[in-house]
Each structure stands twice: as structure tokens, then as C-alpha cells.
Write a structure and sequence with these properties.
Layout: E1 3-4, E2 7-8, H1 25-39, E3 43-50, E4 56-63, H2 74-88, E5 93-97, H3 100-112, H4 114-128, E6 133-136, E7 157-163, E8 167-174, E9 177-185, H5 195-209, E10 217-222, E11 225-227, E12 230-233, H6 242-249, H7 252-259, E13 265-269, H8 270-282, E14 287-292, E15 296-301, H9 343-353, H10 363-375, H11 379-399, E16 407-411, H12 419-434, H13 436-439, E17 443-445, H14 449-461
Parallel strand pairs: 5-6, 7-10, 10-13, 14-16, 16-17
Antiparallel strand pairs: 1-2, 3-4, 3-5, 7-8, 8-9, 11-12, 14-15
Helix pairs in contact: 3-4, 8-14, 9-10, 9-11, 10-11, 11-12
């Protein structure tokens, strides 16, 4: 597969051992930029994405001129770029200084296609309270953004929790030291009654509290978007009907806070806490954290050690431009990160690797099977981790167009056991081979098994600042 509706695709020099049809986003994008420059008549495009707080993010590129033999690729190229910006930065209004017909094509996608309406509904309406819109104009607003510190408060007696799609973790922390931690299997996605989620979270908090003389603060990380502890949108609650979501889920963490005598409580996206955990453990900034769990979570700590207002929802950022690539189950779009850096990816690759399994086997059980095979030095399991590593290398090179990255940290259940080393080895090989300039500036990391178990919950526990 070397074409996506007119966009030329480029085969990677490092081929994922279980996915020879993988066509990395970064290679197609770089090829377009090089070819556009070579044509001698590049058409400049300036994009600005606005959030409801007034933040505006810019991105510039160039397209083929009308009538050029490769001009048909302009739309798939800019559409995939807009989607990457939408899910990495977040916002509801694009300003588009470029060919007006392309802006209208993107608007139609948001109105008329299932994947596009998902983007508009989830990012625009649910996260930013407006349907997505794109304005063709040369009057692009100035860039405006801010950062803020996150967490790193370890004083007192704290509880930290981390809510994933297949398990929830909790830790009791006294002056930064873990005195108790536990991981509990749960199944939040299909649950229609939010009482299930409330009861599960409360059960974990109560167990942690038994190991503390008092509870001074509670911090949590969870998949989804949270604004001032309000649940905006979250895959954990996607089984809850909209009416019940509005009635109960949006304010769920305020309900939990009241149950704990209104101690300081803060909940943020799990990707942000992954990056924070990495920054705290490594003593470094400029960290892009990627959690390979039931889905994919991303977070970013700036080179100044702060966080941004960006979404960092890497689960929905396209990394594979092959139009026949794996479909992301929630959005229905192709080639998105959730199918490449998650238990979903492991499950998808098992059959290709020749590992017998049944479609009804839950993803955590499939992962356990692969991890056990890996511990037995099984070549099929190795191929799965090697493939994920190759995916990761090309994805990180792509992310480097959107983030100032110095360190990449991988966490999550997929990285437990011996497979993490193969993933990192594969990613480094990609940068050495295809992106030597990035190989010199980006370091890959994971944490030891203890930090993997505790790190996310400890970082979450550090989120609230104590009231003095």
C-alpha cells in the first residue's frame, strides 16, 4: 500500500516484523514537505486552533499548487494533520489560511462521516462545549498559551489512585514514601450504572486509608479529560447513558470528595500523570509520557517542568497512514495510536504472530498470555514487542513535530515484564536508522517494576496542595 487517496505513502526502512504494510505518518509528511519544496511553487498554509479559554496554537505547512500531479494528496495530508493537531492540542475552532476548498472538505468530514462526527462530538462539544468549526481566513489570531506547575507535593498523608480500563491502582503515601499499594481488576467500559465506578473507587480509597493515620489529600489519574475535577469526557464511563452521565458522572469526584470530609482532591488525565511520574522519577523535564494500557494515554511535561492546556490524547492521533490500517474501536478511524500502543495492539498482533487465542478472551488475559510466553523466551511474543517498538520509534518521530521532546517514558501494563526492553530497543533502532538527528536528542526510558507499580499512583497522590 503506497497511496492514500492521492497521498504518496513511504515504506519504512525498519519494517515492523508483524506489519509489513505499516506506513508511518512521519515519512509521508516529510515526503510531502520535500516534494512541495522541490516543485518550486509551494502553497503556504497556516493553521490556528483555538480553545475556549482563549489559548491559540499555530502550525504551518505547505501544499502542492493546484494542477500539480500530486495535488490530489493535499486533502488527505492536511486532514490527517488537522486530526493530529485536534487530539494533541485540543480546541473547537480552526482558523485556516490556505485553499478554501480544503477547509470546506474538512468541515464536511466533521459533519458527514462517522469518524469526523466523533471528533466533533467528543472534542468539540463534550470537551470544549462547541461543535468543531473551521474558518477559512487570512486573519489568523496571534498565538497565545500558558503553562502551569502540576503536582510534586509529597507532604502529609496522601492517597493516590490511577483508574485504567482493566484495573485500578491505589497507593497510601506518607511524606512521599509508599506504605501500601494495591491493584484491582475491574471492567468499567461496559458498565451502564456509574454506581459501579463510584463503589470501585471508594473501595480502593478505603483500603489505602487503613494504612494511614489520617487522610490529608487525595489525588487521582484517570483516562479522559477532566477540568477542575469535572468529568468532561472519559472512556471509563462510555457505557453510561448520556442522561445519567450528566446527572451523576460529571460531578462524581465532588461526590467522592464529600465522602472524605472535603480534603483537597484533584483528578487529572492519566497521561499527564504518566509524564509527571516520569519527570519525578528521572529528575528530568521535556518528558513525553506514553501509557500503554487498555488504550493509549499521553502526557507532556515542558522543558520548564510545567504542563500545558493541551489534550495529549495520543490514542486518537494518526500514526499509520495506510487507509487499510487497524480501526480504532471507539472513534471508528484508521491508523490511530490506540491500536498501536495498548493491550488492543497486543491482542491484534497475537493472531498474526501465530499465538492461539479466542476472540472472547479479555484483553488483560491475552496480555498475560503474551507476557508468560515472553518469560519463556517464546519467539512469537518477542515479535509482538519488537513490532510495538518499531511503531513507537516512528510515532515518536511524528510526535516530535508537535512536542519539544527530550525524554520519552513508557509505562502501562503492556510494559510490564521483559517486553519493555524490546519495545525501547526497537524504538531506538528506528531513530538510529531513519532519524539520526532525533536519535541524538531524544532518550527513551521506562521505570523498574516497583516504579511501574507505584509511580503513577504516587505521582497522582502528589497532585493536591495541602491547605495550610
Amino acid at each position: 500500500m503506497n497511496d492514500n487517496n492521492g497521498l504518496a505513502l513511504v515504506a519504512p526502512r525498519v519494517t515492523p516484523i508483524l506489519d509489513p504494510n505499516f506506513r508511518p505518518a512521519i515519512l509521508a509528511n516529510r515526503a510531502v514537505r520535500k516534494q512541495v519544496q522541490a516543485c518550486g511553487r509551494p502553497v503556504p498554509v497556516k493553521l490556528a486552533l483555538e480553545q475556549t479559554d482563549g489559548s491559540v496554537f499555530h502550525f504551518s505547512t505547505e501544499l502542492f499548487p493546484s494542477g500539480h500531479a500530486s495535488a490530489a494528496g493535499n486533502y488527505p495530508y492536511i486532514e490527517r494533520l488537522v486530526k493530529a493537531l485536534l487530539w494533541s492540542r485540543g480546541g473547537y475552532r480552526f482558523y485556516f489560511d490556505g485553499p478554501a476548498e480544503l477547509a470546506e472538505q474538512i468541515a464536511r468530514r466533521w459533519r458527514e462521516t462517522p469518524a469526523g462526527t466523533f471528533d466533533s462530538r467528543v472534542v468539540g462539544e463534550s470537551m470544549f462545549d462547541h461543535p468543531l468549526e473551521i474558518i477559512a481566513t487570512k486573519d489568523v489570531p496571534s498565538e497565545k498559551s500558558s503553562t502551569r506547575p502540576l503536582g510534586r507535593h509529597l507532604d502529609g498523608c496522601r492517597i493516590g489512585f490511577d483508574l485504567g480500563g482493566s484495573d485500578r491502582k491505589v497507593a497510601a503515601v506518607i511524606e512521599g514514601k509508599v506504605v501500601f499499594s494495591e491493584e484491582t481488576i475491574w471492567d468499567p467500559y461496559p458498565q451502564t450504572d456509574p454506581q459501579y465506578h463510584f463503589d470501585g473507587i471508594m473501595e480502593s480509597l478505603k483500603k489505602a486509608a487503613l494504612h494511614l493515620p489520617r487522610v490529608d489529600a487525595i489525588g487521582g489519574s484517570a483516562a479522559g479529560v477532566y477540568v477542575n475535577n469535572h468529568v468532561k469526557v472519559a472512556s471509563l464511563f462510555r457505557g453510561v447513558p448520556p442522561k445519567l452521565f450528566n446527572e451523576r458522572v460529571k460531578e462524581l469526584f465532588f461526590e467522592i470528595k464529600r465522602c472524605w470530609n472535603n480534603v483537597p482532591l484533584e483528578v487529572v488525565n492519566d497521561g499527564e500523570v504518566t509524564a509527571l511520574a516520569g519527570s519525578m522519577a528521572l529528575g528530568k523535564n521535556g518528558v513525553l509520557g506514553i501509557a500503554l494500557g487498555t488504550s493509549t494515554a499521553g502526557g507532556y511535561v515542558t522543558t520548564d517542568g510545567n504542563i500545558t492546556s493541551w489534550l495529549n490524547e495520543l490514542a486518537f492521533v494518526p500514526v499509520d497512514y495506510n487507509p487499510n490500517a487497524a480501526i480504532e474501536e471507539w472513534s471508528g478511524d484508521y491508523g490511530c495510536g490506540a491500536q498501536y500502543f495498548s493491550q488492543q495492539c497486543v491482542g491484534r498482533l497475537m493472531q498474526i504472530a501465530g499465538i492461539d487465542t479466542t476472540a472472547s478472551m479479555p484483553l488483560p488475559e491475552k496480555l498475560k498470555q503474551v507476557q508468560w510466553l515472553m518469560s519463556e523466551n517464546d519467539y512469537r511474543a518477542k515479535k509482538i514487542y519488537q513490532t510495538i517498538g518499531t511503531y513507537l520509534g516512528y510515532a515518536v518521530a511524528h510526535y516530535a513535530d508537535f512536542y519539544q521532546v527530550q525524554h520519552v517514558l513508557i509505562l502501562g501494563r503492556v510494559t510490564s515484564g521483559q517486553g519493555a526492553d524490546l519495545i525501547l530497543e526497537g524504538a531506538r533502532e528506528v531513530l538510529r536508522t531513519d532519524f539520526p538527528e532525533l536519535h541524538k536528542t531524544i532518550e527513551f526510558h521506562t521505570l523498574d517494576e516497583k516504579e511501574k507499580r507505584h509511580g503513577q499512583a504516587v505521582a497522582a497522590a502528589s497532585l493536591p496542595e495541602l491547605v495550610r
